[in-house]
Design brief:
The chain contains twelve helices and 14 strands. It is α/β, with parallel strands linked by helices and 347 residues long. The structure holds iron/sulfur cluster (SF4).
Amino acid sequence: MKENLFGFSLPQLEERMVALGEKPFRARQLFQWIYERSVYDFDAMTDIAKRFREVLKEQFVLSLPKVFRRQDSADGTIKLLLEMEDGAKVETVLMRYDYGNVVCVSSEVGCSMGCAFCASGLIKKTRDLLPHEMMGQILAVNGILAEEAQRVTHIVVMGTGEPFDNYDNVLTFVRTANDPHALAIGARHITVSTCGLVDGIRRYANEGLQINLAISLHAPNDEIRKRLMPIARRYSVAETMEAVKYYEATAGRRVTFEYILIAGINDRIQDADELSDLIRGTLAYVNLIPYNPVVEKPFQRPSDRAISAFYDRLKKRGINCTIRKEFGTDIDAACGQLRAKYERSKP
Ligand code: SF4
């Protein structure tokens, strides 16, 4: 079976070129065509000898996922339901911040982590996504942005799936996204977000990467966390914090804690106090995310007043935090909702 070229890191492709009897620099040449010039047709790669282009065509494909559904929000957010070669559908979202175009990438088809509040987790994982399928999500959005002479500037691996449950493929993808010969997106502009797989956090700490790490904490203690996230039964909050400290010490970087604010569950002032006590002494900062209601879920978004009070309390207690800007509130805003809706509508 032909391999998809978008799945290769530069060192992997160099190795493959040598195996095909070519010089390693062919890999850079190919990367230049596909990532710099967005040329996805071997025949158009005119500085490569025709004979070798035929070899490339026999060995590789350059195919991107198809846009199966698209939703455009008035605020410029675009949600895509992308179809992979085997028919699997995954959701990808473009959000436009003042500082750039951020794409939220899915890492698996469905998710088995079962977080109680999540629309993505409504559909269990059927398989991992491969590096070319994650890269395909970025290139599909780049194709749309090209009409505005723009490109993707930031990546968050925060869509459907648990990245550390698909560790090697995700790492190949983010490394290629970061590679100056590929997408050349700065490491500080890429974030991998885990629901808290402690082994994965420790492994990631040892990679020597500058790519950001976010951890979905969503609760200040085990009791509340267990109500929201099954992963909390596997790893306690204390074990998660130990891993965070290990990451800070080993990678020399800080983590971001994602904290979805859900009315009456984790949004009380005493929760803010407990959260600040928990993370004081780490370098971490907190990203507060007002909950986006999902039809199938019983949870509600807190009032604006409760959100501000929680934020003010953390600030007062010396915790660095932000409230995440909300996007696409006029379309299916919650992560995974577009796909969940499509799956429900299938005969
Ligand atoms: S929040 Fe993330 S890890 Fe949890 S079920 Fe949803 S996609 Fe999976």
